[in-house]
Amino acid sequence: MAEAAGLPRTVGLLGAGVIGAGWAARFLLHGVDVRLFDPDPEAERKVGEVLDNARRALRRLTLAPIPAEGGLTLVSSPEETVAGCDFVIESAPEREQLKRELLSAVDGVVGPDVVIASSTSGLLPSRLQQDMRHPERMLVGHPFNPVYLLPLVEVCAGQRTSPEAVERAAAVYSALGMSPLIVRKEIDGFIADRLLEALWREALWLVNDDVATVSEVDDAVRLGAGLRWAAMGTFQSYRIAGGEDGMRHFLAQFGPALEWPWTKLTDVPELTDELLDRIVAQSDEQADGMGVREMERLRDDCLVAVLQALRTQGVGAGAVLARHERALLGGVAKRDGGAEDDEGRPLHRARVQPEWVDYNGHAHESRYLQVFGDATDGLLRRLGVDAAYLDGGHSFFTVETHLSHLGEASAGDDLAVTTQVLAADEKRLHVFHRMTGGDGEVLATAEQMLLHVDTGVGRAAPADGEVLARARGLAARHATLPLPHRAGRSIGMARPASA
Amino acid sequence: MAEAAGLPRTVGLLGAGVIGAGWAARFLLHGVDVRLFDPDPEAERKVGEVLDNARRALRRLTLAPIPAEGGLTLVSSPEETVAGCDFVIESAPEREQLKRELLSAVDGVVGPDVVIASSTSGLLPSRLQQDMRHPERMLVGHPFNPVYLLPLVEVCAGQRTSPEAVERAAAVYSALGMSPLIVRKEIDGFIADRLLEALWREALWLVNDDVATVSEVDDAVRLGAGLRWAAMGTFQSYRIAGGEDGMRHFLAQFGPALEWPWTKLTDVPELTDELLDRIVAQSDEQADGMGVREMERLRDDCLVAVLQALRTQGVGAGAVLARHERALLGGVAKRDGGAEDDEGRPLHRARVQPEWVDYNGHAHESRYLQVFGDATDGLLRRLGVDAAYLDGGHSFFTVETHLSHLGEASAGDDLAVTTQVLAADEKRLHVFHRMTGGDGEVLATAEQMLLHVDTGVGRAAPADGEVLARARGLAARHATLPLPHRAGRSIGMARPASA
After folding, report:
1. Any chain A CB within 8 A of the CB of B310?
2. Is A345 exposed, middle or buried, given 0-12, 13-18 or 19+ CB atoms closer than 10 A?
3. What is the dihedral of CA A330, A332, A333, A334, to 10 degrees?
4. CA-CA distances (angstroms) from residue A416 to A309, A333, A404, A407?
5. Is B4 within 8 Å of chain A by CB?
6. Rounded to a whole number, what is the distance in Å from the CA of B84 to chain A's nearest CA?
7. Cα separation of A23 and A148, whole Å?
8. pTM here?
9. What value of ipTM does the predicted structure carry?
10. In this predicted model, what pLDDT tens digit does every residue of B174-224 receive, in sequence order?
11. Rounded Cα distance, B212 and B203, in Å
């Protein structure tokens, strides 16, 4: 699978900080073996904790089939890291000399066709590759934290980098579900970090000048423009803000503000001890006792939910996720071929979407019926009710449903529906659905009666021969299963005496 | 409702650009009457279009009960706008002199206790209030586009603004579901726009220097840090990026980068004709023929999805939304108060939305249950199940539903639901709903059994005395009605012999 999808078989990672550990998680969870070096004696524990969080996030992110995890090997020197690797990533601290030494060390021991990428946030690849014997295979691949969830990776070539190396690196990142952004002009900070730095410096000024606390700055971002930035970025948001006259009008309207003192761009606040202490204290207060792993999980849950939200719109990071899921599914469809479903295997799977949740904190009752309706549609497709059948003026309509709620489904829960055909005749189809949650608990059941209709005249009519034969066949096979004890049930309670 | 929830009865709006029209939509959809002035002859059409998009977004955003829309009146002068208003908002273009003139004009004709808020993105309230006779009621309330979806509003007092005015404005914004951020130090650009301006200036430089196109800049934001900003803002994201050692480690690690040329903060790019043309052309290419209303809808759908995603995590803008939904639930209970409905009057009305329609050309079966569920919620509110009751750890959960489909509902159809309480005891509520279409034909019925639960322990528990008394009273009154002939019904059909 790894090779087929453009992934390396084994990746060598130099550095296991927040970024290096994130890379390890993304590769491992895509089935790639990882060899890792970091002088930190606690590296193994830290990587393990990040990996736990990454597994948890990925399970929530997608229903697409994830390959079996790769193997993780911790080694004790940079040279050992890269043995047998066909892709190398350096994620050491942002010190040019340190990075140059590491890159030279691995340059000497790994085949000249193996790409070596640096995760630097803004150092120039032309400088980083200076001491290398094979600088043409060196480039920058700058990811964003958490690396296992955010799709952006900036790819920047140095003066001596070959186009083949850029192409190979971009293919690897795409196979990991990321979206490589090729930085065409080599500049300090590339593209994203220039934007982040500008905002960050201004944020530091606001705290330095006691205009706002770190918590107020965060709210100013996340309750306003941050929501737009997640969806559309800055230019497209402003285009819309320009109204019917679009971008030109926006620029005309807000152009003058560029001349006004609306940012403190001319200088950089000095990180004095006093300012450091203030930021740290405010940040501690904001964290309210939450440890970093816990906060990472909250962040990941938010990111997963936002990515899934954008996927429903096919926009931005959501579009990247959808593409990646299709690629993962394609791999499986090829593996599973024409496998036929039987009554033991769920006819339909779904995940509780955030918008399904009502004020009681779990899915609204109508959403259970939506999922059961989708399961019925799955059954009908298996009986041969396809687009041509519908176009021919025939369909099944539900005439009665008896729903029983036995448990609660919360946002993110995985649901599976199994379906038993209780009876079928020329015009009727009697089915019983069971919905289970991730742990196999039955959350709800639905008994349904469907009527076969001629949609042209809007009346019941016999089903076509082949559909009917399949329905009867399934009913006969399912008759060997016990009758569900909730089938045929009615709702009852003693009425009060008339007032 | 309007008064009870801290909302004005009537709001006067000066200016119907993107921001003014957004304010109009947010107030109207919260049941507040709006009087609006804008010299643009096309103002009415434009506001109508924004309002259409806002209605659509709000319907998707929440299942909470939305009050009946306020009335919109367009007038022909600033003075007419504010007649009878108890809150005024100025959203004119960002020209200090123009704003001062408008503010003075309304200052002269509206009672001195009425708050007048300016939507300015960064002009100082102390300067804007200079010519006013009653400057103490003037302040800045700076919202973000789209005003009807983003919760952030910066509240900034001028030197002569009274604390009461700030308090009143914050109460109004909160009642609109927004989250007022009090700007404690009056500075140009307040808090949010300083951050936005810093990023925006850097973005302009990147395009000016041909480092990136507008589309590449947008991707650099929305595929990376933009996702984090939506969830957590900048400081909290960096705290996590600091790993186990948190904020101090992050500052130590990236502090040096502040000295490096990672932004172009020292200067402002000149908006030459050439740069303007380039940005406009790249923006047009990015838009790919999509008109502004269409793009607004896509943006709104993304924002709705992101807000709902964050609501599942109780974080940032999602927490604001959840709070507001609770308030809306409470507001309705209060509004409906003791007004006892009788069995002849529909408990709930709805209109079939286009997105409810499935491949059979009428509403999906789950949408009938959605409408019946809303009718049940209406009944529960009438019994006294309000936000306080829910917060107290009690609610009713549906445990069984028997749905019968007798007709079909198509997009645009008006639906009405009448409800009969068949029985009620300490823990159970047995109801029967009938849904009729515009011509009175019964389209569907639903028999439901609800269980009263202690949501803290997740078990059935007796209802509170007053709620129980109301439920029993209604059941006794409804016992005089005939028992619906579909009540107590079960689904049945002969099973085939085992295969």
Report:
1. yes
2. exposed
3. 90
4. 21, 19, 16, 14
5. no
6. 30
7. 7
8. 0.74
9. 0.74
10. 999 899 999 999 998 899 998 998 898 888 888 888 899 988 999 999 999
11. 9
